[in-house]
Amino acid sequence: MNSGLSVETPARTRGSAWEVLAASLRLGLSSFGGPIAHLGYYEQAYVKQRRWLDAEQYAGLVALCQLLPGPASSQTGFLIGLHRAGWAGALAAWIGFTLPSALLMFALAVFAPQSPGPVVQALMHGLKLTAVAVVAQAVWSMARRLCPDRPRSAIAMAAAALLLAGGGAHLQLAALVAGALAGLVWCRTVELPAIRLSDEVGHRTAWFALALFALLLFGLPLLAARTPHGPLALADIFYRSGALVFGGGHVVLPLLRDALVPGWLSDNAFLAGYGAAQALPGPVFAVAAYLGAASAAPEARPLWSALALLFIFLPGLLLAVAGVSLWGRLVAVRGAAAALAGVNAAVVGVLGAALYDPVWTSAVHGGRDAAIAVAGLLLLERWRMPPVLLVVFCVALAGLAA
Q1: Which of 112, 197, 282, 309 could cross-link to 5 by cystine, CB 3.0-4.6 Å?
Q2: Number of neighbouring beta carbons within 10 Å of residue 365
């Protein structure tokens, strides 16, 4: 018997991995604006222009990926590639969308000066102020969507208070678990949507993806313990961060910072890379290419950058593959919707805590910095300024103030 996702769909023409790569590469070079904007570009390119899938199938993929941990736009693109050209198409979709921004972030890590002068310091400070505005907008938009009532707002505030009181990756996980338990009590009226998709992945493949996800989640820490500052430890950090991210790329910020700063790189280098990622097209998760390279010795930068990039995306892609086939079974589990609602509310609190520390505390050193950050937020939220122009705005004002 098929899962609740499977419906009869019209026969379609299979495409090639090369056409998927060409289409996704074009999007990877031009898709500015973050995950929500990316999904709009996808609809225009894949549904309206190329007609690779219909509007109902696309809406189902988006709904599924927004409810799973991981980068929703990259997961959606991966599944569209799978739908169009099989596993080769899925890989081509991910490579095409991710590669341009990943190469630019790697170049930033390699060519950024180790002892920056005044001009570069002003640039880095402007990038950190950009991060303040971008994360603040993410918190605001997620709060409106994921905390629409008092119980979920209370869960979010409690999670933020827990993180601000203690901090640390273990408390972030505790906040998510507590959010799930609170959701079981206070969010029992929430329902999961019935998602209608074509049957692209068999149950055997789905269970294999889920088993591999769990094996890496629990096995990598054991392997990493033997070399605490080696490539396996790096892979473990990025895999765990990618596996625990509900809500999109910005939520990965506190997880990665707690794991990488100060043992692997400085706070200034971390936030400057995150701010620079806002000026680039493609997924925010591509910042992993920068962080991996910035954490490595010069001769190891290409390998560590590739490891970080692969392992931050891998858990979300495995869960997307499993979710396509197994979602119908999850919908039938009593309490699943309530627990997920609680987790999503806690995510808002986790990101809200990160907005204050480290984003605000590291970037804002006075009234002028605060004014630049607030102006950036208003330009994003009220006047819909493209992120790449916001970077120019914040860097220019930071340079004038230097």
Answers
A1: 197
A2: 10
